[in-house]
Amino acid sequence: MRLTFIFLFFSISSFFAQAFPEGWLGKYAGTMEIINGENIQTVAVDFEMKELQKDSAWSYIMTYKPIGKEAIVKDYIIKRTGASWTFLLDEKDGILIDMRLMGNILYDFYEVNGMFFTSRLSKEKKGLYFELMGGLKSDFRKSSTGISEITEVYSFPPAFVQRVQLKKIK
Predict the structure, then answer these.
(1) pLDDT above 50 for 13
(2) Is residue 10 part of a domain?
(3) By three-state DSSP, how is residue 68 classified?
(4) Residues 78-87: contacts with CB within 8 Å, 24+ apart?
(5) Cβ atoms of 26 and 33 closer than 8 Å
(6) Which among 18, 19, 29, 141 has the fewest CB atoms less than 10 Å away?
(7) Which residues pair with 85 in a beta bridge?
(8) Number of structural domains, the chain?
(9) What contacts 24+ positions apart, CB below 8 Å, involve 86-92?
């Protein structure tokens, strides 16, 4: 069996014409599910995005509010890096994560200390939707076609997911 990837581009200009941050700015709240196998926990989350510099920089502040514990604040900046669909998440501590806007979704993919992570933040009718998923890089399955033109595939199973529907409050 041969893996084939086909990319269809009907119109490059319309594909990259994005509407970020139109409709994304404001304050939001929701309850995040944290799922690890069959274990499910929840935590209240607040999110705020505001423009810092016209068409080039926005705040990204997510506050996790676990019951009986101190709030955890992730205070980042999203910066446009050139094209209308290329961005950088600046964690303000030297860590920079490339992001791409495709359609109405900001995507990223990165590795930290032997773990892979991918997240998405999307604009939806009722607000924003955030999802973070990850797992161990060492926990992989390698398979191949085994025919003359060998295609090797490495599969990395997710170990956890965090997701929240954020509803606009302001």
Answers:
(1) no
(2) no
(3) coil
(4) 78/49, 78/106, 80/55, 80/56, 83/16, 84/16, 84/17, 84/18, 84/20, 85/16, 85/18
(5) no
(6) 141
(7) none
(8) 1
(9) 89/60
pLDDT digits (tens, 9 = 90+) for 33-71: 999 999 999 999 999 999 999 999 999 999 999 999 999
The secondary structure of residue 65, as a DSSP letter, is E
Q: Where are the beta strands (DSSP E) in the chain?
A: 26-36, 39-49, 51-53, 57-65, 72-80, 86-90, 96-102, 105-112, 115-124, 127-136, 141-144, 152-155, 160-168
How much is the pTM? 0.84
Q: Provide the residue range defining the domain that includes 122.
A: 18-168
Please give the structure tokens belonging to residue 95.
């860590």
Please, where are the H alpha helices in 11-154?
A: 12-16
Instruction: Output the domain CATH number for residue 150.
Output: 2.40.128.20
